[in-house]
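A.,

Following up on our hallway conversation. Structure tokens first:
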């Protein structure tokens, strides 16, 4: 017997005996069906269908038309675009309602109403509710190039644009006498909030990706001087000139700029102190 072979069973003279398959007789089919199992399926199937339908109803009520699986948003740019589109739709609705209110208010012939309307009219421009046009400057802030960010072994924060960077630019432009300032094309007013949110910056609750375009209408020399003399922006420009940081900075003088009127909500929400109530 050679190594690695299997021994043939004793008493067998057929050389192919070990490779033959033994065929067993098939079991005869049952002549009578299983009535208990069939009855179980007839009762259980409708119950399963009803349970699934109940789960669908509960899910629909809990979602209230929203997505119960927000984790499917893996593309940040797409998410930002969706949020911006939703905001734009709501903003258009607010503008339409404000137009209706204005039309109904002007139709009222009342001395007190007319006096308040004239007062509102005088405050619309200082409040940023009227468009402004004229010469000015454009400043663009952007994150460092992707290859610089990916190659860094230290703190990545200096390579990114943060809310304080945008705020510093806007404050410098106000100091330079800007009559109107916009960020990403949105008018900046006294209630405008700038907030970092992940890899984007929220402006008035709407996320915007970089680069961030800041424009100001006003005297170009005064605006440029205010930006050049700001100590915070001087440090930012040093980072922009450093090849190991290379955070984005661009400044351009514009012969004509248009700052659109603010078209967001004008209602103020604020906190009030709690009063001590004695029982």
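Then the amino acids I'd put at each of the 279 positions:
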């Amino acid at each position: 017997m050679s190594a690695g072979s299997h021994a043939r069973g004793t008493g067998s003279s057929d050389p192919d005996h070990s490779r033959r398959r033994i065929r067993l007789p098939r079991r005869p089919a049952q002549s009578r069906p299983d009535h208990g199992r069939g009855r179980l399926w007839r009762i259980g199937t409708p119950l399963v269908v009803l349970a699934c339908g109940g789960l669908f109803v509960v899910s629909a009520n809990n979602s209230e038309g929203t997505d119960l699986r927000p984790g499917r948003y893996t593309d940040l740019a797409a998410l930002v675009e969706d949020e911006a589109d939703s905001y734009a739709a709501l903003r258009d609705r607010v503008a339409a309602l404000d137009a209706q209110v204005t039309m109904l208010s002007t139709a009222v012939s009342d001395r007190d109403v007319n006096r308040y309307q004239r007062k509102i009219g005088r405050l619309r421009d200082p409040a940023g509710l009227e468009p402004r046009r004229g010469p000015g400057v454009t400043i663009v802030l952007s994150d460092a190039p992707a290859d610089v960010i990916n190659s860094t072994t230290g703190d990545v924060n200096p390579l990114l644009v943060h809310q304080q960077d945008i705020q510093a630019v806007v404050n410098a432009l106000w100091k330079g006498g800007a009559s109107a300032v916009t960020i990403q094309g949105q008018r900046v007013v006294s209630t405008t909030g700038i907030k970092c949110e992940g890899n984007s910056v929220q402006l008035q609750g709407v996320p915007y990706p970089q680069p961030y375009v800041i424009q100001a209408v006003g005297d170009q020399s005064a605006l440029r001087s205010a930006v050049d003399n700001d100590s915070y922006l001087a440090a930012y420009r040093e980072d922009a000139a450093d090849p190991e940081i290379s955070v984005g900075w661009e400044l351009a003088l514009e012969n004509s700029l248009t700052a659109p009127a603010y078209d967001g909500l004008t209602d103020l929400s604020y906190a009030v102190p709690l009063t001590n109530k004695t029982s």
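DSSP finds seven helices and eight strands in the chain. Curious whether your intuition agrees with the design.

B.
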